[in-house]
Amino acid sequence: MKKLKRILLICMLVIGLLLIFINPIQHAVIAHLSKQLNTIDTSAEDLQKNNQATANFEFEDVQSLSIAEVLKAQTQIDHLPVIGSIAIPNVDMNLPIIKGVGNASLAVGAGTMKANQKFGQGNYALAGHYFEEKDILFSPLYKANIGDAIYMTDLTNIYEYKLASKKIIAATDVYVIDDIPNETILTLITCADNGTKRLAIRADFVEQYPLDHAPAKLSEAF
């Protein structure tokens, strides 16, 4: 009987420790995978090839990020279609851009929300997960301010945008990712109010620079 009680106590202790440390472990894995995808030896040709990959754009199917999804993404990391990077230096955000909004893609970076969008054209829309008080994935967007510089690169060019608006919208306001005639903008979407609403950031296009001739502060952002 005493042995059984001891086993139960050990099991309860192990479960308790897992519950305490599961979130820090999850956040650490996400940060590591994001950094890994941003620093691997990739060429512009590789990114262009990845942009031809088939991807999931059903944003309604996106699920809350669990440790299981994070670990699953870790097993798929070599096959995720990375097509670029996004950086917001003022909030220390630097993430890989991955084609589509599949759960594995959103577990490690920013996902493209439309199949045929192109860097520096139309309304380039990206989605990402949010964690309260954590500087991973799209969580830093809550600290971003109007006027902040946002950079994207496809390793051919660097595209500069300036944050123009930041607002909470209804989860059904999907029109915010639609193209607007004669406007070149960037739209970033993440969760708000426990997933019932969305934070929408709009940034206006400033300029496009060839990667090899971009100002140093832009290149250093990546």
- Domain module count: 1
Shape: globular
Into which percentage range does the β-strand content fall? 25-35%
CATH class bucket: Mainly Beta
- The Rg value, from CA coordinates, equals 19 Å
Report the total helices.
5
CATH topology: Sortase, Chain: A
Helix share bin: 25-40%
Order of helices and strands: HHHEEHEEEEEEH
Mean of all residue-level pLDDT scores: 86
Blueprint (SSEs and pairs):
Blueprint: H1 2-39, H2 44-50, H3 67-76, E1 82-88, E2 93-98, H4 103-106, E3 110-112, E4 123-127, E5 149-153, E6 157-170, E7 185-192, E8 197-210, H5 216-219
Parallel strand pairs: 2-3, 4-7
Antiparallel strand pairs: 1-2, 1-5, 3-4, 5-6, 6-8, 7-8
Helix pairs in contact: 1-3
